[in-house]
Amino acid sequence: MLSRRWLAIVGIMPLAFAALSTVGSPPASAASCPWVRSTAPVPQRVAQVLAQMSQDQKISLLHGTGGAFVGNTPAIPSLCVPGMGLEDGPAGVGEGLGGVTQLPAPVAAAATWDTAAERQYGAVVGSEEGGKGAAVDLGPTVNIIRDPRWGRAFESMSEDPYLDGKLAAAEIVGVQNTGVLAQVKHLGVYNQETNRNTPSDNAIIDARTEQEIYLPQFQAAVQEGAASSVMCAYSTVNGAYACQNPTMLNSALRGQFGFAGYVTSDWGGTHSTAASANAGMDQEMPGGDFFGNALATAVQNGQVSSATLNTMVGRILTEMFTFGLFDNAPHGSPSATVTSAAHVATARAIAEEGTVLLRNNNVLPWNTSGTRSIAVIGTDASTAPQTAGGGSAAVQSSGTVTPLQGITNRAGAGVSVQYAPGDTSSGITQAANLARTSSAAVVFVSYNESEGGDRSGIDLTSAQNQLITSVAAANPNTVVVLNTGSAVTMPWVNSVAAVLESWYPGQEDGNAIAALLFGDVNPSGKLPVTFPRSLADVPASTAAQWPGTNGTVQYSEGLNVGYRWYQAKNVTPLFPFGFGLSYTTFGFSGLQVSGPDAHGVSTVTATVTNTGTRAGSEVAQLYVGAPAAAGEPPSQLKGFTRVTLQPGASTTVSFPLTMRDLAHWDNGWTTSTGTYRIMVGDTSANPQLSGTLAVTSTTTGNTVTVTNPQGMSSPVGTAVSLPLQATGQTLTWSATGLPAGLGINGSAGVISGTATTPGTTTVTVTATDGTGASGSTTFVWTATSGGGGHFGPIVAGVSAGLCVDVRSASSANGTPVQIYQCNGTNAQTWTVAGGGTLQALGKCMDVTGAGTANGTKVQLWDCNGTGAQVWQPQPNGSLRNPNSGRCLDDPSASTANSTQLQIWDCNGTAAQRWTLP
């Protein structure tokens, strides 16, 4: 995204640390905003606000304005709508806001291969964003690292979509559990900076490659991480800008992945009004060139329908309600100090865990008894530590510990630590001389990477390579520490004793690397990207592939991205994907492959043993090779798990494999029959264990599908009840992540109780049928402070802007019950009363004449306790009248005002789905 310095170019001048702007009339009283601290379902609260909004107010939420953050939406005081700040956050709070923690770069966190560490990473980001008053964290970045030359490789996670997706989902959960919305980015085939945001960055890619390599991590972010929002990219994909690409936004993101949140443009990435709105983009940032007055005009002339406008606004309001922003508006301050000792400790732990030991010729770890003098060499060790990358992922450190400081402090008074910058020709000679007289030498080198530009190659500077070569010639115990955002070549690798890839390690750089060098921490990082021997070996090695020619970028390597390419072409990389050494050793044994069972699930197990003399952590990695007929790469990551073991200890790791895990894209996901190779080990290259899995049929047993509630928000101290919906027979239910005070009825599938503590949690609900088949869904639940509650509208399934209404607000017997534009009046305020009745204006919703025939109209009538006035909510959202056995129905799924409702055979369509108060 564009950083703050570019805002003036697009017409928005930031108001440094100013309050968010406002739209509309003076602040409303609490009584006039009944949706605040309401116990009503989120969709109903959204409908109430929409019904009261003017078109100008709606449009104000669909584009950015000036304010304290890199992105801002205005408050609407008359409707109690809070303003929202959107702030950079792939590696922590950005835009130069001080008092924050500079975490390791995202690629360093990815090198942990540790979902728990990623959740902690997200928790720090979310906590500090919230403390600054931001409502939305602009991260994580999950684009595939297609090529090591990409300027934002450090800001993303991996070359593999499975690893990328699992880690991204974990980070999103960490962020959103703090009550801050995560905006995963950048949806689209966006993998280079050259020509970005222009038609000349036109990625030409086939559907299979897009589905298998460039989209799965976004699916995981949405379905496993419950991401609230998505940022569309600068890229052009097959001729269409990503932010106006209906295939990407409507078909894949919303249709295929079931995403219910909202889509924001990258900063300056909007190129149209009607095309973007109709393609599925909801919000323009940072200004309103296309979604301001131009959008109002487009609605007026019919290029964008009013229903589309309401849908766009409704998506944003839904997430605001889900995260409790109406009940507890963001209250932090951009000037606040939000870093803490705990956050700094997390930064250090992730820097340690994500550092990858690439080579060790028995020189590490150092011990103070045998290492009496240490030469610390390179400006990266002292005066210019490369702790972070540039662009929107740049984070201001609250206190950097340099490698020289960290090593000196750890070595203690008994060890001589001397420094040489080695940054000139004479300086290289001085550095070599210092190394020659020292017990050990460590050279720090780096490659500065940033958003906005790609690397021209993957070599370190000639001066840095010469520095390493000279020092290694002077001291055989030379260690090299790399601070890079992705792969670099190492022409000197066989001349040095050890190599560590420390990435951009954040502000705890020195403490982390010292702990690793001295063995206080055992290295356990694994490469999330492949390190090639030369630029000629990379998959996108031609100009047509990178950076493109004649306005197009050809993704002609297809599925063979990263390690898939090296295996398919029998090219041996310098260091393979998944590789990383330790100060101890591990063994793998006992591979067992069972299944598939009746539900298409296979299980792979293996034993991991610490065969060395130190405690340490290992990452067991599962790779699968499909039958040749499937046309897949030789092997693909399908599971990983991190284990920590004492010397001599063993543990069993287990990986489930579903038919979907084995599937490939062929105009839809399909699984081939045949023999699959199953491989488990500590790297993608020649895993230690191998076996086979025979798939003779892809027909599976029952499928259980759980409907996603999208999001829940409920006040602390107020009883709630949420019936869950799923397909399947004799289901039993379980849930994780529920707010304190809430529980789930395992047989009825109802979440109920009274939340006791404010906060946001990510809830996963699982339904299992009698044969063992299960399904799950993930959503966000926010318990807000305060109480109260009210009854409100019944929202129609055919449109969030339509409500069940008493015609002309008349309380006369026989008045038609109809659908009408939601307006928040008493004619649309329904009470779910005892006995299953629905009451408005003091009377009951009634089937005319207690009729039972299809098409019998629904009216208002004196409450009389008969079966004609009983309505039973069904799991699919319909309202069944038991007297007739039929359901409340909107004839022909009409969206026309004043359409009178009827009863009809229950069919589960949108015409029979209703959201109750």
UniProtKB/TrEMBL annotation:
Its localization reads:
Secreted
Give the source's domain of life in one word. Bacteria
Note down the stretches annotated as region Disordered: 872-893
Q: Name one Pfam family in it.
A: Glyco_hydro_3
Any one cellular-component term (Gene Ontology): extracellular region
The UniProt record lists the keyword Transmembrane helix: no
> What are the BP-aspect GO terms?
glucan catabolic process
Q: Which UniProt keywords apply?
A: Hydrolase, Secreted, Signal
Q: Read off the PROSITE patterns from this record.
A: PROKAR_LIPOPROTEIN, RICIN_B_LECTIN
Fibronectin type III-like domain ranges (all copies): 618-684
Matching CDD domains: beta-trefoil_Ricin_laminarinase
- Spell out the Polar residues composition-biased ranges: 872-884
GO molecular-function term, one example from the UniProt record: beta-glucosidase activity
SMART domains reported in the protein's UniProt record: Fn3_like, RICIN
Member of which family? Belongs to the glycosyl hydrolase 3 family.
Specify the protein name: Probable beta-glucosidase G
